[in-house]
Amino acid sequence: MSETQKHPRTARRGRRPLVASLALSLGAGTVVGAGAVSTATEAVAAPATYTVKAGDSWWRIAHNHGMDMYDLAAMNGKTIDATIYVGDVLKVSNGSSAPAPAPAPAPAPSTGTYTVKAGDSWWRVANNHGMDMYALASLNGKTINSPMYVGDVLKVSGSSSAPAPAPAPAPAPAPSSKTAAVKHIVSKVNDPSTYYQWGGNGPYGYDCSALVREAMAKSGFSLPRVSHDQYRNAKSFVPKSQAQPGDLFFWRNSSTGRVYHVAMYIGDGKMAHALNPHRGLMITSVDYMPTNMLSVAGRY
């Protein structure tokens, strides 16, 4: 995640949504160019390349080629925060000359319901019920840009009895010097008022490095603002398997050599991070995002 450009925070009214608007969930690198956005399905230009068209984004191109958008960006020496333009030729994998599949129709009405809990999003609820998030929103007369609130009752289909996501685990004991940092980052992830904001410095909107920087400050550590500099200024490095709560994990672009994402290890095989506008602030397994993850942890 590039964190060098700060976006202004959008004003909010009424109750605060659990997650930020998912308007950016199709990828930060939206096409720049005049003209109406094409709504027709796009055919792949060639088995190993794709020419960017109006309305494309990292997410859309990756989805239509069966790829992860982070892998697609890395394959082309970029990150998902890089802007793509009409006419750009991108390398792709799993290419096909067949047109991209049309969006799945909304499922038939279902008697299954789900009550929204803290930390939920359209993607998370849909994923836990085996649904497409667009279909879930449509089933409830909304779009994925509509906010949801704790206590909202949503119609669901598929496995309507699927359990809600387990609460984020309490962190394992941290070294005394990092305990405050670990507690702070966990509390921020669990706070339904927080969300991912590219260039955000809190107290509600954060990008990855701002979240880590604020947490480490609670333990008296002064870190640089961006993840690349946080990596360069770590006092030492240990194998990932030897990480202690409060240590930092980093992701580096294999083409440019620049670090673009940071997360904090909180113990018990878990890490906390501000991931992207789609997924927001999360606690995940340390194996959640292995592509481009460094094999060492930085220690301050």
UniProtKB/TrEMBL annotation:
LysM domain span: 48-92, 112-156
Keyword Repeat on entry: yes
SUPFAM superfamilies assigned to the protein according to its UniProt record, in alphabetical order: Cysteine proteinases, LysM domain
One GO BP annotation of this record: proteolysis
A GO molecular-function descriptor: cysteine-type peptidase activity
Family per similarity comment: Belongs to the peptidase C40 family.
Family annotation (PANTHER family): NLP_P60 DOMAIN-CONTAINING PROTEIN-RELATED (PTHR47359:SF3), PEPTIDOGLYCAN DL-ENDOPEPTIDASE CWLO (PTHR47359)
The protein's name in its UniProt record: Similar to Cell wall-associated hydrolase (Invasion-associated proteins)
Protein's organism: Micrococcus lylae
